């Protein structure tokens, strides 16, 4: 009897490990809490994250367009000259804008952190989240806002850099809160500072042995 053949046959007949992609909250295979789409493809994370962020961009655009020009610094009459504006946007270099300081250095970093966490809160890596943030900043400056004003040097730098740093800090804080249980005021803070985490994962708390791992 060929024992090696028998052994090989028994090995090939063994069931292969079950691979399961979990949508969110709890991985029954590995007995741990996971983020929404943590085991999904990067493409799926980007599609969901982009859908969320385009919704946020639409709200931001509508708010700025309706706001007084002293606040937004937008000349709304330029909406009638979109073709000319976009030609300038893509043929001339970015400029130093004259926005209010808290727009450039508070609102834009917060916007960047929302971009960052749109996929970071789905288990994307730091690098993937940074690149996603840069991509959406370019889309905002050139494709969305570019029809009304020239892309801003400050926004192209501050939003992705400060936004990614702030985004990672708020992601870390949200995961830490999840691992020990969210208090009511922490839920409010997450909704303001990291709303995409709340949208993607809710406020599920991990049991002591089933905590989300930071990576």
The shape is: elongated
- The ordered string of helix (H) and strand (E) elements is HEEHHHHHHHH
SS summary, helix count: 9
Mean pLDDT: 82
**Into which percent range does the helicity of residues fall?**
55-70%
Low-confidence stretches: 3-24
Q: Cα-atom Rg, whole angstroms? A: 23 Å
**Percentage of residues in DSSP E strands:** under 5%
* Terminal residue distance: 51 Å
Count all strands and give the number: 2
Please give a structural write-up:
Helix 5 packs across helix 7. The protein is an all-alpha fold and 215 residues long. The chain is 62% helix and 3% strand. It has a two-stranded antiparallel ribbon.
Topology, pairings included?
Blueprint: H1 3-13, E1 25-27, E2 32-34, H2 42-66, H3 69-72, H4 82-91, H5 101-120, H6 126-144, H7 153-180, H8 184-193, H9 195-201
Antiparallel strand pairs: 1-2
List keywords for this structure.
215 residues, 9 helices, mainly alpha, 2 strands, two-stranded antiparallel ribbon
What would you say about this model in short?
Helices cover 62% and strands 3% of the residues.
């Amino acid at each position: 009897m060929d024992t090696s053949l028998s052994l090989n046959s028994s090995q090939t007949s063994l069931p292969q490990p079950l691979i399961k992609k979990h949508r969110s909250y709890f991985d029954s295979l590995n007995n741990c809490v996971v983020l929404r789409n943590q085991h999904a493809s990067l493409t799926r994370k980007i599609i969901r994250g982009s859908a969320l962020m385009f919704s946020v961009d639409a709200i931001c655009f509508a708010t700025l367009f309706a706001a007084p020009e002293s606040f937004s610094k937008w000349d709304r009459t330029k909406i009638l000259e979109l073709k000319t504006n976009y030609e300038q946007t893509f043929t001339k270099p970015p400029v130093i804008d004259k926005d209010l300081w808290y727009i450039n250095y508070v609102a834009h970093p917060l916007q960047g952190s929302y971009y960052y966490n749109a996929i970071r809160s789905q288990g994307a890596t730091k690098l993937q989240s940074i690149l996603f943030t840069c991509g959406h900043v370019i889309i905002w400056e050139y494709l969305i806002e570019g029809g009304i004003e020239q892309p801003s040097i400050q926004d192209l730098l501050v939003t992705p850099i400060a936004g990614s740093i702030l985004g990672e800090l708020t992601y870390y804080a949200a995961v830490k809160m999840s691992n020990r249980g969210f208090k009511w005021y922490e839920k409010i803070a997450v909704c303001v500072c990291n709303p995409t985490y709340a949208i993607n994962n809710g406020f599920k708390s991990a049991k002591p042995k089933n905590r989300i791992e930071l990576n």
